[in-house]
Design brief:
Radius of gyration of chain B: 23 Å
Order of helices and strands of chain B: HHHHHHHHH
Largest sheet of chain A: none
Number of strands of chain A: 0
Number of domains of chain B: 1
Shape of chain B: elongated
Largest interface: A-B, 110 and 106 residues
Order of helices and strands of chain A: HHHHHHHH
Structural class of chain A: mainly alpha
Helix content of chain A: over 70%
Strand content of chain A: under 5%
Oligomer: heterodimer
Radius of gyration of chain A: 21 Å
Chain lengths: 235, 248
């Protein structure tokens, strides 16, 4: 169990790196991290339940220009891991739905608060930039490599620490609530789940359609055709 | 043209760290200098000249990180011409860098953030809603086929075409790609919505369908507003659901 927690926290660091400093390959997206966690914790359905909702909401978060986006990398890891940890403690159906709700809400809170941490890291990097330029003016080229190593280590350490802290706080503060109020939380999940999916789908649709009638018509036609096919093909 | 393929490859690999030291003052400036270093190592053998040039390149720079590879190739070519005594001065390099940064950002933001990323997510979600781990892999592959492909090949495109790289067919090709992905994406969102409403051939209960459409309407109505952000809306909806479950 300790190894599973260790793997989860390290994944938080890797996701923090992939989100901006290294690669930007979408490995840090909630669907990817939730799937990895689902395999790690041996409970893919619960992980996907949370990962799908957070992914559909994360799609509309754009890291454009100097904007600091919400930290869905850490939010995705903490949300899915929290749900998985809560379900492991009491594996009943109601607990699973209650845990999924708590996971998504925790993931959203972590993502929103994480933007402030990202801003802090970026301000911290300003002094690294000034130091590096002055070293280069002195003829020390190796400063560029050192600055990059420092930037990567700092981002990884911050990702690991933030994930560990949020996960620990979440488990400490929410385990009792999920066990005592699982029925109400499961009801809340049934209410919030479709609303979140609809909200995310709308943002995705808006990104693609862009007021083009043809694309809007394609969406409608695909919806109706897929609906008919799914109903007809049902056993 | 003396920069070898291995130098261009090393630049492309280093471009993965373009944002490792991202900050509000210089944005991608440090990462830019780090990525350009293999080319400057080759064209400026004098250590002091090279360090001074690298220091200049740590100044402010920002663009869409994937397409930055194209600008890197262009600037590597200009630095090479400058080192060989060609009609290129440092101001001209800085001007081209700035102009390309803005032009590539405008194109890259639309391609990667507004179109390809939602499209890849949509492909992944289509598989994941059926409970498969393959969804995450599909999302990663669809995105990186374009993202890593352009990151690795972009340096060569920029180096060979020079400052006119966008005018020489790259812009129309990327515009066409955006159009096609967006059209296909509209179709996939329709299929995804149908899969959410009829998950295993059995339609979901009417409450679920009504709530999903309510969420869709709310999302469309608020899509053009910057505040509250979609995450804040989602959090608000989550809190509202918890409160209403308590009050019922």
């Amino acid at each position: 169990m300790n190894l599973v927690y260790l793997g989860t926290i390290l994944l938080g660091g890797v996701a923090a790196l992939d989100a901006t400093p290294v690669g930007q390959t979408m490995l840090s997206q909630p669907l990817a991290t939730a799937t990895i966690l689902g395999l790690l914790w041996n409970d893919l359905p619960t992980a996907l339940e949370v990962g799908i909702v957070l992914q559909i909401l994360a799609v509309s978060t754009q890291p454009i220009g100097a904007r600091t986006p919400e930290d869905y990398a850490t939010g995705g890891v903490v949300g899915a891991a929290l749900a998985l940890a809560l379900v492991t403690r009491q594996p009943f159906l109601l607990i699973r739905e209650a845990s999924a709700l708590v996971g998504v809400i925790a993931g959203l809170v972590v993502a929103i608060l994480g933007a402030a941490l990202t801003r802090w890291l970026r301000r911290r990097n300003e002094s690294l930039g000034r130091w590096c330029e002055s070293e280069l003016r002195e003829g020390r080229e190796q400063a560029l490599g050192a600055a990059h190593r420092a930037g990567i280590v700092l981002a990884f350490a911050l990702g690991v620490s933030y994930t560990a802290l949020c996960l620990a706080l979440g488990l400490w503060g929410l385990t009792g609530a999920v066990q005592m109020e699982s029925l109400r939380l499961a009801k809340a999940w049934n209410l919030a789940h479709p609303l979140w999916l609809g909200l995310g789908l709308a943002r995705m649709l808006h990104a693609f359609v862009q007021r083009r009638l043809l694309r809007g018509a394609l969406f409608g036609a695909a919806l109706v055709c897929a609906w008919i096919v799914l109903i007809v093909e049902a056993p | 043209m003396s920069l070898s393929a291995s130098v261009l490859r090393r630049m492309a690999v280093r471009a993965s760290l373009l944002q490792a030291t991202w900050n509000y003052e210089r944005q991608q400036g440090l990462g830019w200098a780090w990525s350009l270093m293999p080319a400057l190592d080759r064209v400026l053998p004098d250590r002091a000249d090279r360090a001074a040039r690298l220091a200049e390149h740590t100044a402010y720079f920002n663009t869409q990180p994937t397409l930055a590879s194209v600008a890197l190739g262009v600037v590597a070519g200009l630095e090479e011409q400058r080192a060989q005594g060609g009609p290129v001065d440092a101001d001209q390099v800085a001007r081209v860098k700035g102009v390309l940064g803005s032009a590539l950002a405008a194109l890259g933001d639309r391609l990667f953030w507004f179109t390809l990323r939602p499209f890849a997510a949509c492909v992944g979600l289509l598989l994941a809603v059926r409970g498969s781990w393959v969804g995450a892999l599909a999302m990663w592959l669809v995105y990186n086929l374009v993202h890593l492909g352009m990151r690795w090949r972009g340096v060569g495109w920029g180096y060979r075409s020079g400052p006119a790289v966008l005018a020489e067919g790259l812009r129309p090709a990327l515009e066409r790609l955006i159009e096609r992905i967006a059209t296909l994406g509209s179709l996939l969102v329709g299929v995804l919505m149908a899969l959410l409403l009829v998950p295993h051939g059995e339609p979901r209960e009417i409450t679920f369908q009504i709530l999903l459409i309510a969420g869709l309407m709310l999302g469309l109505l608020t899509a053009t507003r910057a505040r509250p952000t979609p995450s804040q809306w989602a959090l608000g909806l989550g809190v509202m659901a918890v409160v209403s479950a308590w009050l019922r």
